[in-house]
Amino acid sequence: MRLAERTSLLRPSPTMALDAKAKEMERAGRSVISFGVGEPDFDTPEPVKEAAIAALRAGRTKYTPVAGIPELRKAISERFLREQGTSYPEAGVVVTAGAKQALYEIFQVLLDAGDEVIVPAPYWVTYPDQIVLAGGKPVVVPAGIDRRFALTLADLEAAATERTRAVVLNSPQNPAGAVLDPSEVVRIAEWAAARGIALISDEVYGRLVYDGAEHRSPATASPAAREATIVVDAVSKTYAMTGWRIGWLLTADVKLAAAVANLQSQSTSNTNSIAQYAALAALTGDDSALPEMLRAFAARRDLMVEMLRRLPGFEVDVPRGAFYCFPRVRELLSAPPRGMRFESADALASHLLEETGVALVPGSGFGMPEYLRLSYATSEQRIRDGLSRVAKVLGA
Ligand SMILES: Cc1ncc(COP(=O)(O)O)c(C=O)c1O
Fold it and tell me: Is 245's pLDDT higher than 70?
């Protein structure tokens, strides 16, 4: 069949491609250690599961309002107020199938053909594709390891044009775990508000910060910044609920929220009703599983950073949020160990997967081709085993 032109814009997610290859090797009997996964390896907290079972038993199995059950929209609005001290109306909350759908819908309702969206790199793989699908143009602004992956207002000023409609902020960030300095967040938010540019703030890793780092939403900078900001969040990462598919957006612009809900009503309708009750329990529960998860992540991060730093030609920054390390391997590519030659970090990642069964994600999909991404949402034992294998192959 002849497919629509639009399909040529879609690229398979690079993380999924690697995952598929790793799974294929596993099926063939190879021992594979994957650092590719973007989800906590912990289980969903028990009270959340219980709430889902109770919802099921109570027959909460019918359509809900498209934008989500009122209790959940209220809990989302209240949680933001509790954590960030800024309130958004319940009418400005739309519950979506994960943060991914929220982002997709925001770009669809905001962008006209040729509108520009500033995307700091490294970026989460999905942003540019979703922007292009909505007819927009991603304008990529890089900030690598030399700058600790920290976007500044000066970067945005240099990239902005008449056509700039929005900026995507993601702090704590995937893939480098960088956390923007709160004072820079305020400067950026005030600048965007003054220029009438929307700030799409992806805060899915907002609770996953270490070493006393502070996650500050740009919505908190000023009343005008609150109006300019659309917050995107989800239960996915914070509560180990990636498979439940519950995310949301918060906006002060109820017209925008209504447009998103309309779009959703013509595509997926409400998100899964039972999962909405589970998310409600997660957001209104006692968060007691979180400190334990954070402690485990911090210990794994320290181990991973220490082991990566011993590898030849790896430059590693200590991530302060999320659960990823993003080492630069430029030096390894330009001066590889004796007898080895790698065209790119992609080639290096393929070689390591084939030789050692260790899966690392090349940085090209995140807009930074000289890097690799490793998730430390896996056990210390697997970090030790996996990186020992890599060290052996690289002669470290
Ligand atoms: C930065 C970022 N935003 C959004 C998402 C998507 O989250 P969800 O699973 O809630 O759709 C991810 C998932 O990896 C992510 O890393």
Answer: yes
Q: Residues with beta carbon inside 6 Å of ligand 1? A: 38, 98-100, 124, 170, 174, 202, 204, 234, 236, 242, 247
Residue with tokens 């999905």: 126
DSSP single-letter state for residue 394: T
Percent of the chain with pLDDT over 90: 91
Distance in Å, CA 244 to ligand 1 centroid: 13
The 10 Å Cβ neighbour count of residue 341 is 9
For 20-46, letters b (16+ CB in 10 Å) and e give ebbeebeeeeeebbbbbbbebbeebbe
**pLDDT of residue 214 exceeding 80:** yes
Strand partners, 202: 170, 232
238 and 223: one domain? yes
Assess whether 192 and 308 both reside in one domain: no
End-to-end CA distance of the chain: 52
Claim to verify: residue 93 and residue 17 sit in the same structural domain: no
**CA–CA dist 19, 137 (Å, integer):** 28
**Residue 362: enclosing H or E segment and its boundaries?**
strand 361-362
Full domain range(s) for residue 370: 5-43+289-393
The CATH number that applies at residue 387 is 3.90.1150.10
pLDDT digit string, tens, across residues 366-396: 999 999 999 999 999 999 999 999 999 998 7
> What pTM did the predictor assign?
0.97
Give the residue whose CA is nearest to atom 7 of ligand 1. Answer: 99
From 95, 103, 126, 215, the mutation candidate for ligand 1 (largest count of ligand atoms within 8 A of CB) is 126
The residue whose CB lies within 8 Å of the most ligand 1 atoms, and thus the one to mutate among 19, 230, 237, 276, is 237
Give 5-18 pLDDT, tens digit per residue.
988 888 777 667 77
Which residues sit opposite 249 in a β-bridge? 94, 232
In this prediction, residue 213 has a pLDDT band, given cuts at 50, 70 and 90, of very high
Q: Give Cα separations from 188 to 185, 198, 241 (angstroms).
A: 5, 11, 31
Tally the domains of the chain: 2
Average pLDDT, the chain: 95
Which residue carries 């082991």 as its tokens? Answer: 307
